[in-house]
Design goal:
Mean pLDDT: 92
Oligomer: single chain
Shape: globular
Largest sheet: 3 strands, antiparallel
Radius of gyration: 17 Å
Number of strands: 6
Order of helices and strands: EHHEHHHHEHHEEHHHE
Distance between the termini: 23 Å
């Protein structure tokens, strides 16, 4: 990965990198400032270990089976009430949403907004599609939950295909996606909420309320954020 020394100053540069992706084969990711490393002077990109690159294994991953394996029914303090209408079993994958917006244009818009809000360095990763960035880098941000980085990218590929969800931010232990085709009703967002919870229990646990309430927040939402802190 090529990484800028300084934060990206021009939001238009991010959109330009996305526009040139088909020609360059370099997907642009925004790398946020992480205050946890400020005191030590570390840069997690170079000073922390990585897993072996695993893009060649991404296509072999069964996404539904993987999320079912990652589904943890024991996080609720009182039984499985927080998981209603589901319980101990993972409900499967949400249906594909109708794509009405170009995912790359949506990613460019989302990324440019994030650049305006906070400092981000620019990273360029040689991949065939944005979802493959974690597997290509051997990213370890999810290591507290799993070391299956190919599975992480496989889930991102599935969300790309079903929701136009595109990776725009890569942090030490966080990912952010722009979403061109979010679910448009509560029923579909409920199943997607279960996928989110299986993928990143920490992200779900950090939200107030039940799975139903989390699902309500996903209807028409065009920006997803996950963390494994």
């Amino acid at each position: 990965m090529w990484v800028s020394d300084d934060p990206l100053a021009d939001p238009g540069r991010y959109r330009a990198c996305i526009a040139g992706f088909d020609r360059s084969g370099l997907w642009p990711v925004l790398i946020p400032h992480d205050p946890r490393f400020a005191a030590t002077g570390e840069d997690w990109l170079t000073d922390r270990g990585r897993l072996a690159p695993a893009v060649h294994r991404v296509g072999d991953v069964d996404v539904a089976a993987t999320l079912a394996r990652w589904w943890d029914p024991f996080c609720c303090p009182d039984g499985t009430g927080c998981l209603r209408p589901y319980s101990a079993g993972f409900p499967g994958l949400a249906k594909k949403s109708q794509l009405r917006v170009d995912p790359l244009a949506e990613a460019g818009n989302t990324g440019s907004i994030l650049v305006r809000r906070a400092p981000h360095r620019l990273g360029l990763v040689p991949v065939e599609r944005p979802a493959d960035v974690p597997a290509a880098l051997g990213w370890t941000g999810m290591i507290k939950s799993t070391d299956e980085v190919a599975a992480v990218s496989a889930v991102l590929r599935s969300w790309e295909d079903r929701f136009g969800a595109t990776l725009v931010v890569l942090g030490f232990d966080e990912l952010e996606l722009s979403v061109a085709a979010p679910p448009r009703n509560q029923n579909r967002s409920l199943v997607l909420a279960a996928e989110h919870r299986a993928f990143s229990l920490r992200s779900f646990s950090g939200q107030p309320g039940t799975l139903r309430e989390y699902a309500a927040s996903l209807v028409h939402r065009r920006h997803w954020r996950f963390s494994w802190d």
